[in-house]
Amino acid sequence: MNKELLIETKQLQKKYVTDTVETTALAGVDLQIAKGEFVAIMGPSGCGKSTLLNILGLLDSPSAGSFKFLGQDITHASERQRAKIRKQNLGFVFQSFNLIDELTVEENIGLPLAYLGVSKAETEKRVTEAMERMGIAHRRNHFPQQLSGGQQQRAAIARATVSSPSLILADEPTGNLDSVHGREVMALLTELNEAGTTVVMVTHSPSDAEYAHRIVNLFDGQIVTENLNVRKHAAELL
Amino acid sequence: MLKNYLVITLRNLLRNKVYTAINLVGLAVGIASCLLIFLFLQHELSYDESFKDADRIYRVTSTVQKGDQTIETAAAIGPLAQLLPQEYPEVESATVLINMGQNAIRTDEQAFYTDNIIYADSNIFSVLDFPFIVGNPSTALKAPASIVLTSELAGKLFGSLEAALGKPVKYIASTFLVTGVIDQTAPSHINPGAILPLHFDAQTEYYVTDWNGIGGYTYLKLHKKEHAAPLQEKIADLYDRKATPGQSLAGITGATFQLQNITDAYLDKEKEAPVGEVGNITYIYIFGVIAGFLLLIASINYINLATARSAKRAKEVGMRKAIGASRAQVIQQFLLESVLLAIVASLLALMLVELTLPLFNTVTGKTIDSVLILSSELGMALLVIVLFIGIVAGSYPAFFLSRFSSAEVLKSNQTPKSGNALLRKGLVVAQFTISLVLITGTIVVYDQMMHVRNTDLGFDKEQVVAISIPSIGWVKQKENLAAIKQEFRRLPQVVLTTNAQQLPGEGAVKGDYLLEQNNRLVKKSINTISVGYEYLDLMGMKLSAGRNYSKDIRTDEQFRYILNEAAVKELGWSDAIDKRIKPTWADTANGTVIGVVKDFNYTSLHSKIEPLVIQLDPHFGKLVVRLEANTPLAATLSDMEDIWRKYFPGYPMDYSFLDESFHQQYQAEEKMLTIFTFFALLTIVIACMGLFGLASYMAEQRTKEIGIRKVLGGSVTDIVVLLTGNFATLVVIAIVLAVPVAWYAMDTWLQNFAYRTELSWWQFVAAGMGALAIALLTVSYQALKAATTDPVKALRAE
Ligand SMILES: Nc1ncnc2c1ncn2[C@@H]1O[C@H](COP(=O)(O)OP(=O)(O)O)[C@@H](O)[C@H]1O
Ligand SMILES: [Mg+2]
Prior knowledge:
The complex is a heterodimer.
Chain A: E1 5-17, E2 22-34, E3 38-42, H1 49-56, E4 64-69, E5 72-73, H2 79-89, E6 90-94, H3 105-116, H4 120-134, H5 149-161, E7 167-171, H6 179-194, E8 198-202, H7 206-209, E9 214-219, E10 222-228, H8 230-237
Parallel strand pairs in A: 3-8, 3-9, 6-7, 7-8
Antiparallel strand pairs in A: 1-2, 1-4, 4-5, 9-10
Helix pairs in contact in A: 3-4, 3-5, 4-5, 5-6
Chain B: H1 2-15, H2 17-45, E1 57-66, E2 69-73, H3 80-87, E3 91-99, E4 103-106, E5 111-114, E6 117-120, H4 124-127, E7 132-135, E8 146-150, H5 151-158, H6 161-164, E9 168-171, E10 174-182, E11 194-197, H7 206-209, E12 217-222, H8 228-242, E13 254-261, H9 281-308, H10 310-322, H11 327-364, H12 376-401, H13 406-411, H14 421-454, E14 464-467, H15 474-490, E15 494-500, E16 509-517, E17 520-531, H16 535-539, E18 543-546, E19 560-564, H17 565-571, E20 581-583, E21 592-597, E22 612-616, E23 622-627, H18 633-647, E24 655-657, H19 658-664, H20 667-701, H21 703-711, H22 716-750, H23 761-788, H24 791-796
Parallel strand pairs in B: 6-11, 8-10, 17-22, 19-21
Antiparallel strand pairs in B: 1-2, 1-12, 1-13, 3-6, 3-12, 4-5, 4-9, 7-10, 8-11, 9-10, 14-23, 14-24, 15-23, 16-17, 16-20, 18-21, 19-22
Helix pairs in contact in B: 1-11, 2-9, 2-11, 2-12, 2-20, 9-12, 9-14, 9-20, 11-12, 14-20, 14-22, 14-23, 15-18, 20-23, 22-23
């Protein structure tokens, strides 16, 4: 493991304070993720997986601890800075796809490029490429509601990758899909990872976790075990 | 079930506080405006309604020919009132009265200037039964030295009304005994201040004896309404038999008559020489329309907000249907909800009206104590409004909401679409179009008012004081006026003094003249004012030819005239000086024009400057004084009052400043402008409240989308622009629609003025930009709130 670190967290904590209760979602997480890795985060419901992923994705900020992204400490970065890092480096895939209902597939996929200020011609080229890679080019003018779940998730992955991010964060990407479409999505993520993109994925499914290099097990907001995926590593070593 | 509906409704209203507040405030203001307009309308239409048998009391109005001139007048000709009941049995009773205008009514202790002093024959109370508080109507005007007072005047003079009866009061040079006190609260267009017998003054005799002149105001009570139309013809025949047009000093060559029901008299502003008060129905229309608009805008808010949040109610509807409710029942429920809202809004509106009543009373001169004790008419009006809002505004949301099928709503996790977005957009555009037209209107009206104020009037109205001279018998009056003019003049603060029967702004009287045209004398009716020496100098008016009146030229008091340029132009004279002119009644050969004055505004800026004849009369009219600039007013007036008391002891010095009284003719318009501005602003406030609610639902509905956009890198600015952009487009469309409407409406309005401001682009730009700015400000609050919420929360929410 001599690769450059993409993410490094120290004693990451997250507390949610509501009117009456204080929930500790993360209770001191130390995690390092290198460039090019494929990491799966597993654990029972409510153990803090999504919370961790959102912090790694700069959607949320920790209550305590530190967080370095590409060697830069961004624990206390402003919303503006975080938005900038987000649109330049990150892609998101959600369990519920989170496509915008009022926009067509093509417009949905083009959105990150619009926020990056990419020219129209360039946007069209890259969106077409992304759609073709995901096999949904023939659906470009459809609205999300008109697609099947698998197609929607492929559109979401296309959107997550269209800006060529260095890190893709996926929160239970197969949660709403049947097993055939689930395997399809996992194959796509693996393909992206093999092409050099770092992938961090939250999942319940042991079979999905099999695709990752490393599995992080979370329990009550803490990492309990970190396993290297022997089969994957073996394949890499070969 | 009803209870269940009520509970649900109340909980919904309480839970969605912003939604409820927007609807309640908007509807309450709209309803309150409608109620006020209704009260106002009711007041304006109630004039003369309280006379017994008002439906068969008629005023005889006349259409008088003077050569090729036609005059519509509220007065009638000659002794009709005397003759009609004798000649025609269908006339039950008749009376004639004249209005002597304002004068002082006094006791030894105090004096009060009273408007509309009426001289009437003794039949007046059998036709017009003004309610007597004390006294006997059938004998009140029988004795020549009797007077009937209003309760207001009697109260001021004598303290109690009972004490007034039989007491002496003085008017001009005579003493009268109070024979009755009437209650003047019920509105009547005659609006008498005091009523005296017609025959005490021999000078007024010709009003009721001369068949060839315009006489008094004649009122008839007929046995049956149906008699009115045929009687008109009969009166015309009678006139033709009795009149000898060749002998008419007023130059009357013919006349026809109309019987106008007394309840129509007040709102008839076409007739010349109205009796007392004349109403203006145009304002009622304008405010009626504005109140309607307010209600419409508030109803649109209700429709928009109810459908926008329909997604939230869909589950409830689905549930109700699943357990067996029919669509009709669901519709019923939502209609009930809107009616309930309208009822609560009405209660608030009644409270609002109650609070604004004092203001309303000062504007209308009405004395409504409270609207909380509903009159049956007001109750009906309220009921109509409640049903209108409840059913018209409530039905679209009700039909829309009741469409959700239970299967769709309950099975899928999808939230149903929130109503017809296009309809909502259209309604918002309609709201803003209305607001914009009103706001542009306000700006134009304001601009016109300023224009009117700054127009050169042709005279200097500052520092001029006018003082009414009490009628104390014409010999004494003349002497005192001459003396007091002299004495005032000696005060160091006084520049000049003169007298005038009509001051600028008070108009003129029509005079009939024979004038030289192509070496012949032609007859013409021309506006005339009577003024003293030095009037032109005092007013700062300029001569463009000839000379001013001079005390050194003896003949100036006899048929020497100064005309304005408009008159000279109309007569086509190249040189006006020494042209012949004389009143038709005068038996003289040497009337001449001695000067031409530059045009000045002697009526109002509504009308162009008409031809004018100025005649010299140094003996009568108001006393006019020009003060030095920057004189301390209080001290000067008190010096003047010291002198006044020597000549008119017991009479208050009733003075006014010319600039103020000239300005007063625009007071009605300015009052209307204030009200107009207020309502125009209200419409935009209510429209923006709706927008606020709509924006909040829009933001709520788009929470997920906003979350996604932020996750993908959209900045706060991006999101705010995205959300406000939609609304901005709507306002821009409204601007495009409003400009031509406002342009047309205001251009039409400005045609009423002879001196008018130009419509200009800035008025429209100001209104448009203002509305846009207010709308964006309203929406951006919600947009900013939405754009700064945590995207993680937004996406978790499902
Ligand atoms: N916005 C929030 N407010 C309060 N508690 C929260 C919030 N988000 C998450 N939690 C709590 O934090 C814990 C971890 O949540 P989460 O990270 O969503 O779990 P997981 O994704 O592993 O199921 C849970 O107990 C959850 O109830
Ligand atoms: Mg989760």
